[in-house]
Amino acid sequence: MIERVRAVLVTADDTMLAIRRTRPGIPEYWVLPGGGVEPSDESREAALQREIHEEIAGRADTIRLLHTMETDEERQLFYLARIATWSFDDRTGPEFSAEGRGEYALEEVPLTLEGLDGIDLRPEEIAHVLRGAIGAGSLGVEASP
Q1: What is the rounded CA–CA span in Å between residue 1 and residue 110?
Q2: Cβ contacts of residue 22 below 8 Å, gap of 6+?
Q3: pTM of this prediction?
Q4: Strands (E), the chain
Q5: How far is CA 127 from the centre of its chain?
Q6: pLDDT tops 50 at residue 144
Q7: How confident is the model over 51-94, as pLDDT tens digits?
Q8: Which of 17, 45, 14 is nearest to 141 (CA)?
Q9: What is the phi-psi region of residue 141: left when phi exceeds 0, alpha when psi lies from -120 to 50, beta otherwise?
Q10: Where are the beta strands (DSSP E) in 25-102?
Q11: Which residue of 24, 121, 123, 131 sits 20 to 30 Å from the alpha carbon of 6, by its own alpha carbon?
């Protein structure tokens, strides 16, 4: 089974970092930073840190596992994390140099119902989970010190 890890990366301004994907012939959509767990990763959390480093040259403090999605072929684990610094210009992931992959634009999205409603966050299931947690006030992200 393929395992993927992704993060709801919450900034000091209580926005979340999302990647706007633009591909030829497909309406734009947003995804959370992350990717596949590799055999060399010591843990899922280590895989998440590697992916965050590759995709946005950042480091996050993981708060907790937020949600798991599973099919027969794939398991995706979504973590809630705080991030203080990042640099999209210093990203190193192999997907950024692959031909035909389209554009990856990092954006800060308000971590509000209105912010989520303004983007097409995929998969829809994680967007639904985030809307529910925000609406209930149960996301559990404490303000940065």
Answers
A1: 33
A2: 28, 102, 103, 105
A3: 0.89
A4: 2-10, 15-23, 26-31, 34-36, 60-70, 74-83, 103-110
A5: 11
A6: no
A7: 999 889 999 999 999 999 999 999 999 999 999 899 877 776 66
A8: 14
A9: beta
A10: 26-31, 34-36, 60-70, 74-83
A11: 24
